[in-house]
């Protein structure tokens, strides 16, 4: 069984587990629930959501939290559908998604290509290990306070920060993946005298792909988090900023409604990434249909 | 003996030449810098020494570290506590999965806004936001880990007539620990990210509070120094985590324990 670690393992800690771990959500898609809807399960899932809404409503009605600060679920739902068709909301969604896509694309291109170069060379991968460890320990949002003055609050700054946060998980997974090709397969490729290029593109890269995709999947959610942090703290246009704006004018129902909307955007991103992953890894045992 | 020392020196050289080169380059390139945003490295290090060794160490560094640790412990207790029953009941797991996926997908930094209203500025706000973020990776990893327990271990439980408590404490938890540790590692990086945001907006001390103050006062050498302090905190957490991981997972294919 090929194993993909959910987080970003050090290049030197192979972890062999049974089955595949999935850190990001999307089990709904992954485990085939959507392919063949099971009505009783679907009913239960609806019940769970209903229970969540009821709990929310009760918290408000029984004043477990100050109702001024914690509006009723009905009110939040009403604001949600009022805000949903406004251009203000969709402009914010578009800004958030633009930063996410730009930052993630940049970090994938740079992370994968540098990761391949580093991972294919023992000296380089040993030399960079400590440095990568230190660099990825630095929380990206802390850089915000400097980047804002160097680059302003626009898309450039947001995607630079996302790039910084997202590039290391991808790079580290790529280094790890390139270094962990099955030795039997590698020997076989040599025995058949595949050219160096073929050995790389037909053996090394495909066997590293599951690891790379894990890095991309982890980075995709990091990218959203960091993007929203940038908007929230730094005032870049987007959903994070909009949440602050509606809170400042006292529209608390709108604030909760927008937070729920960002959750939906997050789910959308997760599903998107899992679909890409499945498409690229159709051949891989963990993605083949039983 | 000689060869061992030689090998040690070689590995030290291999892991240190690149960082040394980069720091050297930074030092030289920034030496004459007059930009306020990118001060010379020497000034940053001076500020780091003044601020974090040790003026703000007990007043800000330690409180930040404590909040993060407390949040981690609470997240572990809640995540493993809820994840174990959910992971051992397939129907419950499927019923709750979409809600969990949805709640997990909300970037928790946004919870700072309602927390400002409900909890108010202070360490409890940071604690709440950090737990709200860190609990999900652990919870979902625990569910996966417990669900993936090998069927023969379930047979074992019946054969030995283990009580539910013994089963969870001695077998299930242990068998799921590789996944739980993987989830914890993800939580760890989330914790530090959220700490920056929560303290910058809703705290009266801590590294995040300090960095915000310095930035608002355009003290950029100090901002960089606080950035280093955050890096240090993150690095310490990562190293500590690896020590714990090596202990907890020593039994999995020699994972960690051999290093």
Write a compact overview of the structure shown.
With 290 residues, chain A is mainly α. Chain A contains eleven helices and no strands.
What can you tell me about this protein's structure?
The complex is a heterodimer of chains A (290) and B (259). With 290 residues, chain A is mostly helical. Chain A is 73% helix and 0% strand. Chain A has helices at 27-30, 39-61, 73-83, 87-119, 122-137, 140-151, 155-179, 183-191, 196-234, 239-248, 252-280. The longest helix of chain A has 39 residues, at 196-234. Chain B is mostly helical. Helices cover 81% and strands 0% of the residues of chain B. Chain B is built from 11 helices and no strands. The longest helix of chain B is centred in the first third of the chain and has 32 residues, at 57-88. Residues 255-259 of chain B have low confidence and may be disordered. At the A-B interface, α2, α5, α6, α9 and α10 of A face α1, α4, α5, α6 and α9 of B.
Write the layout of secondary structure elements.
The complex is a heterodimer of chains A (290) and B (259).
Chain A: H1 27-30, H2 39-61, H3 73-83, H4 87-119, H5 122-137, H6 140-151, H7 155-179, H8 183-191, H9 196-234, H10 239-248, H11 252-280
Helix pairs in contact in A: 3-11, 4-7, 4-9, 4-10, 5-7, 6-7, 6-9, 7-9, 9-10, 9-11, 10-11
Chain B: H1 2-30, H2 41-55, H3 57-88, H4 90-105, H5 112-118, H6 123-147, H7 151-160, H8 164-175, H9 177-202, H10 207-216, H11 220-248
